[in-house]
């Protein structure tokens, strides 16, 4: 059996189509940083921008072309002379360059947007490819809105641009309208009906308007396509593009299915995703495939038990292969004995017998009903005999005044051992003022070791989760608070930590 696979060219357009996401514009230096990571990842082609779009984008394409040595650098250009010349100019110093020129071929785009007859479009496409070939011998031609174009017209224009010197033919699903079976079949028919189709590599470029970008791209691959255009984290115009990490890992994981392989070093996927997210300010949703924080995290007992017995029961990839340190077993109310015991063993805590462990496990479940996630410190306190925290402190009311030029002031009403108290304090910031106000009455003598805020969902109305870590007499506790008001969440987290500290103390004193 012949197992030799075709090379699947990975064409990354994070810096061009990704940048077309509203709010994701990048500076030249940011583009260089991302391009370096893409090069390290061994992306074959980096589309660095649209050189004619602005002087800044021209400089960015130029700078990426001068920096990157191992990947081909590409600029987009409309099928017009000035765009192509500008792209050629920006790419002059590239080790390996490509000009990517395009024109729309669908009836709706030709009639309303371009306001051109199909014959004129065909003529412009051929002229554009010929001009681009004067700057580089690697020219890609895209039939914009290809998935909504008439097949017979596509066959004619593709044959003509290949004859004019285009080596890559991209048929994008520009508006994310395609369906996998239909889009894949379109490529099969194009390849069968264009007489010189063997002279070019066919390429896919899918948008995610119906959430089908990756499925459509992979269907195209199954039907003869050998280049996929994609972006890190699926960034891109509107709902985004097909995501690089999903395409690459699908092809790699389903080697039994796909007749292709990529040259990508997948261990750079997560660091690159993080970089793109931090530069664009677009967070990665926790449940995003491959790069989401939960992609290799298991919370439920049955899964955790399976993974502990044999990782492949619930994992089709290794976290390390995509750049995560390792997978994670998150302890919470859905966890079972296997995962809890395994974590205790990792912490060096062993149990005399099943009965002792069972007692701790019951405490664990009681605590897990009150907290989202159980940390190592919680596990430790459960074995030292600490019961689930007694709620000594409870937030009744919080008002924070913050005015430009003056110190923020926090006023709180706290229920302490069933009695209501009003407290207030100033602080260097609203959170500091809140914590100082609590401490003005709690006088815990605990040190604040960690304060962290995480948005659970996106947007300014998102639910925030705050973690507060306090230390007293060598004992660490993590308090957690969640609220759409980040100050309320902070106060709750602080009080949660105090409750845990005091529960432990009371237990030790035998209260
Ligand atoms: C599907 C895609 O992602 S395509 C890429 C989309 N990306 C971008 O548009 C980002 C960069 N774009 C820009 O900076 C600007 O749109 C520019 C510099 C390209 C053009 O700016 P302007 O000259 O002001 O034109 P404007 O954007 O208003 O309109 C686009 C023009 O290009 C024409 N056009 C659009 N695509 C093409 C094409 N592939 N080939 C030739 N002409 C085209 C349109 O018909 C329109 O022409 P008109 O002005 O004669 O009506
Ligand atoms: C220019 C082309 C490739 C494009 O971005 C699209 O059609 O979405």
Secondary-structure map:
Elements: E1 6-7, E2 9-12, H1 28-40, E3 45-49, H2 55-67, E4 72-78, H3 81-90, E5 97-104, H4 107-114, H5 118-133, E6 139-144, H6 151-164, E7 168-170, H7 180-193, E8 201-205, H8 213-222, E9 227-230, H9 244-253, E10 260-261, H10 269-280, E11 297-298, H11 301-309, E12 328-329, H12 337-346, H13 354-368, H14 376-383, E13 393-401, E14 409-416, E15 419-426, H15 430-442, E16 447-455, E17 464-472, E18 475-483, H16 486-509
Parallel strand pairs: 1-10, 2-3, 2-9, 3-4, 4-5, 5-6, 6-7, 7-8, 8-9, 11-12
Antiparallel strand pairs: 13-14, 14-15, 16-17, 17-18
Helix pairs in contact: 1-2, 1-10, 2-3, 5-6, 7-8, 11-12, 15-16
The site of acetyl coenzyme *A has 15 residues, from strand 5 and helix 4.
Question: How is this structure best described in words?
Answer:
This protein has 3 domains: 6-280, TIM Barrel (Alpha-Beta Barrel); 297-383, Recoverin, domain 1 (Orthogonal Bundle), CATH 1.10.238; 393-509, Alpha-isopropylmalate synthase LeuA, regulatory domain (Double Stranded RNA Binding Domain). It is of the alpha/beta class and 511 residues long. The relative contact order is 0.07. An 8-stranded parallel barrel has the order 2-3-4-5-6-7-8-9, surrounded by 8 helices. Helices cover 39% and strands 20% of the residues. The protein has 16 helices and 18 strands. Mean pLDDT is 93; it is low at 507-511. Residues 17, 20, 50, 52-53, 78-80, 102-103, 113-114, 144, 174, 237 line the site of acetyl coenzyme *A (ACO). 3-methyl-2-oxobutanoic acid binds at residues 17, 76, 102, 142, 144, 170, 172, 174, 205, 207. This is 2-isopropylmalate synthase. Catalyzes the condensation of the acetyl group of acetyl-CoA with 3-methyl-2-oxobutanoate (2-ketoisovalerate) to form 3-carboxy-3-hydroxy-4-methylpentanoate (2-isopropylmalate). Residues 394-511 are annotated as: Regulatory domain.
């Amino acid at each position: 059996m012949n197992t030799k696979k075709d090379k699947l060219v990975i064409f990354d357009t994070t810096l061009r189509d990704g940048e077309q996401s509203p709010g994701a514009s990048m500076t030249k230096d940011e583009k260089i940083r991302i391009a370096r990571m893409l090069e390290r990842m061994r992306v074959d082609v980096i589309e660095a921008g649209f050189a004619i779009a602005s002087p800044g984008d021209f400089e960015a394409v130029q700078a990426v072309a001068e920096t990157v040595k191992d990947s081909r650098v590409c600029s987009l250009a409309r099928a017009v002379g000035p765009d192509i010349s500008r792209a050629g100019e920006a790419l002059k110093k590239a080790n390996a360059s490509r000009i990517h020129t395009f024109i729309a071929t669908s009836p709706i785009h030709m009639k309303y947007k371009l306001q051109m007859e199909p014959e004129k479009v065909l003529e412009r496409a051929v002229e554009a490819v010929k001009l681009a070939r004067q700057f580089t011998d690697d020219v890609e031609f895209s039939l914009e809105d290809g998935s909504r174009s008439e097949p017979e017209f596509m066959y004619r224009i593709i044959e003509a641009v290949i004859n004019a010197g285009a080596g890559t033919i991209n048929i994008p699903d520009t508006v994310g309208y395609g369906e996998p079976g239909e889009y894949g079949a379109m490529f099969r028919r194009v390849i069968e009906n264009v007489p010189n189709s063997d002279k070019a590599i066919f390429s896919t470029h899918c948008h995610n308007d119906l959430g089908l970008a990756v499925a459509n791209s992979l269907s195209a691959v199954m039907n003869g396509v050998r280049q996929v255009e994609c972006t890190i984290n699926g960034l891109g115009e509107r709902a985004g593009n097909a995501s690089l990490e999903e395409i690459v890992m699908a092809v790699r994981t389903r080697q039994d299915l796909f007749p292709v392989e990529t040259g990508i070093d997948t261990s750079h996927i997560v660091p690159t995703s993080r970089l793109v997210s931090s530069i664009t300010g677009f967070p990665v949703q926790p449940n995003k495939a491959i790069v989401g924080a939960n992609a290799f995290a298991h919370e439920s007992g049955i899964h955790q038990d399976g993974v502990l017995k044999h990782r492949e029961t619930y994992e089709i990839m290794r976290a390390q292969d995509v750049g995560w340190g390792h997978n994670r077993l998150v302890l919470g109310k859905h966890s079972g004995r296997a995962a809890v015991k395994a974590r205790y063993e990792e912490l060096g805590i062993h149990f005399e017998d099943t009965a002792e462990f069972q007692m701790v496990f019951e405490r664990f479940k009681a605590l897990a009903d009150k907290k989202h996630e159980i940390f190592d410190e919680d596990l430790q306190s459960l074995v030292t005999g600490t019961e689930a925290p007694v709620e000594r402190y409870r937030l009744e009311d919080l008002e924070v005044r913050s005015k430009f030029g003056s110190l923020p002031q926090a006023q709180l009403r706290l229920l302490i051992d069933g009695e209501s108290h009003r407290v207030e304090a100033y602080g260097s910031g609203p959170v500091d003022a809140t914590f100082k106000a609590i401490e003005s009455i709690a006088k815990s003598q605990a040190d604040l070791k960690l304060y962290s805020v995480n948005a659970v969902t996106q947007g300014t109305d998102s639910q925030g989760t705050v973690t507060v870590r306090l230390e007293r007499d060598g004992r660490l506790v993590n308090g957690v608070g969640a609220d759409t008001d980040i100050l309320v969440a902070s106060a709750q987290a602080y009080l949660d930590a105090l409750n845990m500290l005091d529960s432990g103390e009371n237990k030790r004193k035998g209260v």
